[in-house]
Design goal:
8 helices, rod-shaped
Amino acid sequence: MNVVNDLSFLSLITGATIPVQLVMLILLAASGFSWWYIFIKVSVLKSAELAVDEFENTFWTSGDLNKLHDSIHSGRIKNRIKNQGLATIFEAGYKEFNRHKTSKSDMSDVIEGVRRAMRATYNRELDFLDAHLPFLASVGSVSPYIGLFGTVWGIMNAFRGLANVAQATLTQVAPGIAEALIATAIGLFAAIPAVIAYNRFATSVDRLSVRYESFMEEFVNILQRKG
């Protein structure tokens, strides 16, 4: 028996028992989806951060809120900040402000309505930014245990095979143990990038949410002075 060939990576996978192979397949699928979502979130969060920077620069250099609102609503503003992040929060708040203003409502009611409108849009924006993060968190926390299940199953199967052997040798034990440990290795391969990505993305979302909330408070103060 050629132990080197038996211990090659491909041989360990193809030679594993069906339950262990199913575990490996689940982990590889989870890893594939994780990487797909990671690439998506990198693009989404980068775009969101650039949109915040550009909108804040446009907002604070613009002297006329009506013109800024009309530019966003009509699509004349830059595509990157249109219909995303602070632009949508601003548009929702200013639209509500104008609606209450034309009805000559009390200023406290106007501001409360503006806050509710912006908060609803803020929550939708955060839901969009948080998309796929629970999946990455689940893969990062569960994958090692799924891999461990495959390892335990493989080791049990290896020892059951040794029960009928008069004298166990390293040549007989090594392939079964190696097949079992492959499942744990794949579990870690799926979990580590998911955990790192989740922590990085969650931090980015938290930073964006703080910037959104800060803008909302500053905008409400501006509207109060304007009112």
